[in-house]
Amino acid sequence: MFHLAESSKSFQEVVFELEPALQRLGLSVLARHDLGEALARRARGEARGFDEDYLLLDIVGWRAVEELLAADLRAGLALPWCFAVYTEDGATRLGFQPLSPPSGDARLARWVAEVEDKLTQLIDELR
C-alpha cells in the first residue's frame, strides 16, 4: 500500500538534503506542508496530542507532467505526487503511496513506473 523506509539520518538532515536530491532526479517541489509545525501552532495553549515532525511535499517532474496531460487531461487528477518525511518514535521515515496507472494505457503505465522509480531512488538516496 505504501512505499516506506527508515533513514539513518535525522529529520533535519533529510529535509536539508531533500531539494538537491530532487533536482538531481529532475523533480521539483510545488508546495511544502509542514504538518508538524501547523499542528503545533494550532495547539498553542492546549495540550498537544501530536508531537512528531511531519513534512509533506507536493512533487512533480515537469517533462512527465507534460506527457501525462498530453495523453489524458483526466490523469492530472493524480498530480502532484505526495512525498512524506516524518518522525515516528524518534526514527526518521520517508515514503510515498504508489500511483495507480489508468488501466489499458501502456504509455501511462510506463510513465507511472518511471515516476515510482524516481521516488524510490529519492528514498534510497536519503536513507
Architecture overview:
Strands 1-5-4-3-2 form a 5-stranded antiparallel beta sheet. 42% of the residues lie in helices and 26% in strands. The radius of gyration is 16 Å and the shape is globular. It is built from 4 helices and 5 strands. The longest helix has 21 residues, at 106-126. The model has no long low-confidence stretch (mean pLDDT 89). The relative contact order is 0.24. The chain has 127 residues and is an alpha+beta fold.
DSSP summary, beta strand count: 5
First-residue to last-residue Cα separation: 20 Å
Number of helices: 4
Mean pLDDT: 89
Name the shape in a single word.
Answer: globular
Q: How do the SSEs run, as a string of H and E?
A: EHEHEHEEH
Strand content: 25-35%
Biggest sheet character: 5 strands, antiparallel
Structural class: alpha+beta
Helical percentage = 40-55%
Quaternary state of this entry equals single chain
Radius of gyration: 16 Å
